[in-house]
Amino acid sequence: MRNNMISCSAPGKIYLFGEHAVVYGETAIGCAIELRTRVRVELCDSIIIQSEIGRTGIDFEKHPYISAVVEKMSEIVPIDGVHLKVNSEIPVGSGLSSSAAVTIASIGALNKMFGCGLSLEEIAKMGHEIEIQVQGAASPTDTYVSTFGGVVTIPDRKKLKTPDCGIVIGDTGVFASTKELVANVRKLRESYPHLIEPLMIVIGGISKTAEPFFQTGDYSSIGKLMNVNQGLLDALGVNTLELSKLIYSSRGAGAFGSKSTGGGGGGCMVALAASDKCTQVAEAITGAGGKAIVTKPTEQGLRLE
Amino acid sequence: MRNNMISCSAPGKIYLFGEHAVVYGETAIGCAIELRTRVRVELCDSIIIQSEIGRTGIDFEKHPYISAVVEKMSEIVPIDGVHLKVNSEIPVGSGLSSSAAVTIASIGALNKMFGCGLSLEEIAKMGHEIEIQVQGAASPTDTYVSTFGGVVTIPDRKKLKTPDCGIVIGDTGVFASTKELVANVRKLRESYPHLIEPLMIVIGGISKTAEPFFQTGDYSSIGKLMNVNQGLLDALGVNTLELSKLIYSSRGAGAFGSKSTGGGGGGCMVALAASDKCTQVAEAITGAGGKAIVTKPTEQGLRLE
């Protein structure tokens, strides 16, 4: 028996540690956050994709990820008509893996609706393939964390204890191309390998050093290590004045620590903060010119709503 | 024959690379700048020390450095009466080695006035002893660079070619205790030696990597390395929002590169910039809330005025 309507959601993701260094095989730590993208699926006569940016059919320009999902799922089961309606709390293009979340939520909803029986592992894998198809290149981390939730080491995929505290996102509102930033870091590393390679290793070392602090709930030490990591991101040239303002303001307001997340060069920063400090951290970020969102880590990845 | 009046000057100093790491034996690069402290000495009936902060006799509270100089020089030659008048372009307590400059200029002037015949090496050494006496601890670098001028590697004291370009100082106006900052870095290093020791080594490596660029006049590469160094200072926890604003603004205005100088935690930043870009870099720093001073590297250390 098929349901007429299915709704699934998948979370966004931040890097608590290790972006950029992860490109060179170093350990990073990703964390699913309680900002979710919801995809509601209803049977209908044709393919309709509806989101904030409009209502289309299969449309690889406007809805590339969902179009690719429908195409890919059609290889498993015939999909004649379905109405996918997207609703997202995750700011787009700011390094919070909004594309992974919409992809995973869409696969999950169609998987359920059409009884395809894909496992979570298979959903994560398909999500990664779709990201590669749409973007040309993609880390498997985003789709993995969005599918499984929680705090995850990369590339080992060890699940760490989810911190029981708040996360405040600060969005600079500045668009930055991750591709370009990764290329700039590569250039710097090629110019000064004897300087930059050791920095990458130290970033990986920070992730490994932080691991036990998740198990013991030592958020203060996690925060201090985030700050060290942030300095190294600055050394790699992916920090900006706008990010720096939000980062320092959040620390001044009592965050355990803060850093940019993802490619940098704009986009978002994240602050780890005690739950009762989140409001003041958010206010400080707003005061420094950012758009603040209070959220928290979540253990829940893809889920039925 | 004695002159009735002698005037000497000595320059301030910035770190182009390597502060903090130099504490752990890593290479740093100091640079004398064309901001000078002038000390005029006249024979008179008693000891008079006159500066911006007032007119005193031997006074270890108000004029500790000059008082110590007069005391020390009196061990070599009887000094019954002398009027020392200080005039300085170097902001006090902002990491530009104002105390070394006033100490060296005072020793130099008395040395000349009373024909003591101290060599420059001896003057630098006495200056260092006086800094230790007054401060409890002091690096020999400040007094060395103020005495000999130019761009100098530390601890090797190799003289590099003086850059033919401008330096813009940005003063945050925030006082910070170098002693406290050095202690904080030490604490961080003791908490995470496997992370922080490699960073110190990379900072030393940056200085060594920069050395040949001074010889070839590749200011663009020197600037890029200053930016990497700045990120590592941020990682060590000695950066602040105020410094960051001035640093990023100076880069935005076309500086080759910029970083904090000295202890950090406030104080000054320095930007290396083409001579014809100095005005716009200075304006950017002013616009970002700092006090800007346009200056340049100087080969001249202690000199007779």
TrEMBL record, chains A, B:
Residues 213-277 form the GHMP kinase C-terminal domain. It holds the Pfam family GHMP_kinases_C. It comes from the Archaea. SUPFAM superfamilies: GHMP Kinase, C-terminal domain, Ribosomal protein S5 domain 2-like. The keyword Glycoprotein does not apply. Keywords: ATP-binding, Cytoplasm, Isoprene biosynthesis, Kinase, Lipid biosynthesis, Lipid metabolism, Magnesium, Nucleotide-binding, Transferase. NCBIfam families: mevalon_kin, PRK03926.1. This is Mevalonate kinase. It comes from Methanosarcina acetivorans (strain ATCC 35395 / DSM 2834 / JCM 12185 / C2A). The gene is mvk.
